[in-house]
Structure formats: structure tokens, C-alpha cells
Amino acid sequence: MKRFLSYVCVLTILVSCSKSKNIKKSDNSQTINFITKRLENTLKSNPDSTKIPRTINEEGDLVTVGAYDWTSGFFPGNLWYMYELTKDEKWKNEAVKRTEVLDTIQYWTGNHDVGFIMYCSYGNGLKFGNQKQYKDIIIQTAESLSKRYNDTTKTIKSWNRQKSWDGKTIWHYPVIIDNMMNLELLFEASELSGNSKYKDIAVQHAKTTMKNHYREDYSCYHVVNYDTITGAVLDRKTAQGFADESSWSRGQAWGLYGYTLCYRYTKDKEFLDFAENIANYIINHPNLPEDMVPYWDYYAGNSNYHPEWNYNKANFPTIPRDASAAAITASALYELSEYSENKEVLLKAADKIRESLLSPAYMVENSKNKYFILNHSVGSIPHGVEIDVPLVYADYYFLEMLYRKSKLDKNEVMQ
């Protein structure tokens, strides 16, 4: 009942906000034209498909990565979504070319992010492009990912590194909340292959993460460090958030999205309830800005939480937002609304985020960013990288958000 009342409260607020003169409904054709120009600029300036767009530098030049970067699957995924949204064959042709440079990743066992890399690219190619030959690649990638599962910790290992970013913690077996996103690959591989092994690993990882990553208020830690002999939790830390006990906004979004997809594949109500509680935490957070595009960490700059935390306002006089966290959240909320009894509340929240991201505050026409859709995302402030910049994965989940919204508007199945 408490959760239900909080949903009703936020619904009232959102209905009021939706009438604000500061937010106007964007024309869909204008949005597609804007996105088309950005993607065309990127393709024209970067014809080499082995160089994969990730962000821009301070001068506005395109920054690219290779196939083994965790973000390499997002740009081909963006092209697949544009093909699905427009049915223009040029996007499919480019998507195939940019997807298939990732072929060798299917055999890579050295990183948990193969789910991001291969499902966002090959997975969307199979789903939207009818590339039936991609089925075996998805299954092989799942087999590679499953080798990172440990039956003692009952989780999939994230990093191979042995020390934390600040050098103070020894990582015996680090698991990050981001891993929830790579479970989709495993679930899908089980459906494609008929082998329940991949689904079983995904379910167990999700249940262990539910137990060890989350606090009572349904916020999550970024990194949990396990003992490989006993399976016990050794440390709970952050790598990209404000502080170990704070709430890194993209991490909250990863969890929301991850538990929503777990319910999609399992229909286990425990996962649905958990996703709804995470959604409730996010959309009711007292430090969430009015436009519902979060700060890079929900606690950043708010002394009401932990006054002893010294947030460096000299370096960041304006606390950076993270449009990538907003896009992931909105996309997840659209899917979750299909399963939840609180559908209207979740849709209102997703629509509010969508309209904010569609506004000139985030889709900036005249800026040094000529290649990506959204401005104002954050990679990692503690590492001093990609702060208040466009990021390829923000665009990916933005496009997925548009796709899911279009499916909902047409009363069509979004998956």
C-alpha cells in the first residue's frame, strides 16, 4: 500500500508537469530528420567500419574505438533501430556492415560486456533485419559469456582487474550492476538454442544480485566484491559513482532495465516486484530534477544526505546530468508499463523523460556535437573521463525508447 500511494503521489505531480509550458511535444518527422543528419555525418566522416563511434573530444572531433571496447555494439545497434523506425534500406545495409566487424567477439571469454557488444548489434540484426545467420553467433556468444559464471559466488564475473580504481581495494571477484544488462543475451540464447543452461545462469545471477547489490530502499551499489572460496561478500564499493554509499544514476537505470527484462523472459513475479520497487525509487527520488533527467549520481551536490562528502564544486559548478541514465530509464519504464498494474504512472514518467530528452536542452541543433543525438551524458567522473559529452550508448537507448513508444502507441508488441 505504501508503494501504491507513492505511485499515486508521483502521478499527480507528473500530470501537473506535463502541462508545463516548458515542455512541448516534438514532431516525429523533425526528430527523425535530426537523427538522420547526425548519423549521416558520422557515416560520412567515418567510412572505416572497424573504427566505431563512441563520443567526441573537446574540439568536437569524433572519437572511435575498436571491436573489443564495451561500447562497440551500440553504433550498429543505432543503425538497426533507425532501419526499424524508418524501413529505409540504407540503414540496414550500413547496420550489416558495421555489425559484422564484431564477428570475433563471439569467442571472447575475457569480458562480461559481450552481451552489450553482441546483443545490441547481432541481436537487433536478428530481430529487425531477419538475419537468420546471426542466431548461431548469439548462441556462441552466450556460451563464451557463461564461462565467466562461478557456481560458488553464483554470479558472472565482471572485471579481470585486481585493484579498484583508487588502488585501495583488491578485487577478488568483482561484479558490477551493469552485468544485469548482459543477461538478455543469455535468456535469448536459451530460447534460440533450447539449452536452459544460459537461462539458469541468468536467473541465478539476477537473484544473487538482488540479494547482495541492493539496499532496503532499492538503490544499488555499483560493485560487489566476492570471496571465491566461500562466496561471501567482501566489499561493496563504487567505481563511477559519487561515493560507495551513494546512488550512481546509470547504475540504478541498469538495474531497472535488467530486472524488467528478467520478468519478460521468466514471468517470475519476484522480478516484476523488484523492478517496480526500483522504478519507485527513481521516479520519487527527492534529488531528481524536475525534467527527470538525473544528475550523474542522485546524491551528488545534495548536502542533506552526507554533508561530510566533499563534492568538488570548483570543478563542477553545475552538477553534470546524465542523459544516458535518463534514456535507459525511460526505455525500461515503457517496457515495465506493459507488465505492471501501475501502468499509467510508469507511462507518465517515461513520457516526461522522453519529452525532456527531445527538447533543445538535450538535442542541441547548433553545437560542436555533429555526430550524436543527445548531449549531456557522463562516462565516469571519478576517472575524469567523458564528462558532460555525447555518448553512443545514450543514443542507443534513446532510439530504443522511441521504438518502444511507437509500439505502445500502436498497441503492438515491442519485443
Chart the SSEs and their pairings.
Blueprint: H1 2-18, H2 28-45, E1 52-56, E2 62-65, H3 74-86, H4 89-99, H5 114-128, H6 135-146, E3 149-150, E4 155-156, E5 174-176, H7 183-193, H8 196-212, E6 223-226, E7 233-237, H9 249-266, H10 269-283, H11 323-337, H12 343-357, E8 377-380, E9 385-389, H13 392-409
Helix content: 40-55%
pLDDT averaged over residues: 90
Low-confidence stretches: 1-26, 307-311
Distance between the termini: 31 Å
Annotation, overall tally of beta strands: 9
Shape: globular
Q: Helix and strand succession? A: HHEEHHHHEEEHHEEHHHHEEH
CATH topology grouping of the domain at 1-45 and 270-415: Glycosyltransferase
Strand order of the largest sheet: 5-6-7
Helix count, DSSP H or I runs of 4 or more residues: 13
CATH class of the domain at 1-45 and 270-415: Mainly Alpha
Largest sheet: 3 strands, antiparallel
Question: What's the short version?
Answer:
The protein is mainly alpha-helical. The protein has helices at residues 2-18, 28-45, 74-86, 89-99, 114-128, 135-146, 183-193, 196-212, 249-266, 269-283, 323-337, 343-357, 392-409; strands at residues 52-56, 62-65, 149-150, 155-156, 174-176, 223-226, 233-237, 377-380, 385-389.
